[in-house]
Amino acid sequence: MTRAQAISYVLACAEREKPMSSSDSNQNSRSVGDRDYHFTTTVKVRLPETDAMGIVFHGNYFTYLEVGRVEYLLNLGLAEGLRPIRDFENVVVNAHLDFKSPARLHDVLSIDVCTQEIRHSSFTFAVRIRHKSENRLIASGWTTHCAIDDDFQPIEVPDSFRATISKYEGWGS
């Protein structure tokens, strides 16, 4: 199987994946209006991230999602060295953003992150980007990741990852 075929397979698996059980799904996800963000990091908008009008170019918001996700995982002790998740590899299979208001050069942005859900082999991080001093919503969205092995085949999300996230997000309490 080529690398491209393997990636296509992972994407197909992630799209058809079902939660391990309905109780797991309900316990590990929150509706958009009910989401609690327990982690926040900040970034300052730099010149190369803006367009000719000094507004953040839309594609750069996905970099902010990545910054938030990696800082969240570092905070939980789940990252190691250059690996965002130390215990297994993962690929992004879905990324979505809704833009609400512009961010400009030198704005300080708060990036709020939480884990929205963990399924059998995938997990989703919800992200909210706010203007720090105005508390104005800039964008909100999510990224869904699939846990994979060395052959790019989906694997079950490890119990240790689930337990760390569940404890931090307060799912068991």
Question: How would you characterize the overall build of this protein?
Answer:
This protein has 173 residues and is α+β, with helices and mostly antiparallel strands. Helix content is 27%, strand content 29%. The chain has helices at 3-16, 22-27, 60-75, 159-169; strands spanning 39-44, 89-99, 108-118, 122-131, 136-148. Strand 3 (108-118) and strand 4 form a beta hairpin. It is globular and about 45 Å long. Mean pLDDT is 87; it is low at 18-33.
Entry keywords:
single chain; 4 helices; Thiol Ester Dehydrase, Chain A; 5-stranded antiparallel β-sheet; 173 residues; alpha+beta; 5 strands; globular; 27% helix
Could you provide a short overview of the structure?
With 173 residues, the protein is of the alpha+beta class.
Main β-sheet description: 5 strands, antiparallel
Give start-end ranges of low-pLDDT stretches: 18-33
Binned, the helix content reads 25-40%
Determine the number of helices (DSSP H or I, runs of at least 4 residues). Answer: 4
How much beta, percentage-wise?
Answer: 25-35%
Q: What is the domain tally?
A: 1
List the helices and strands and how they pair.
Elements: H1 3-16, H2 22-27, E1 39-44, H3 60-75, E2 89-99, E3 108-118, E4 122-131, E5 136-148, H4 159-169
Antiparallel strand pairs: 1-3, 2-5, 3-4, 4-5
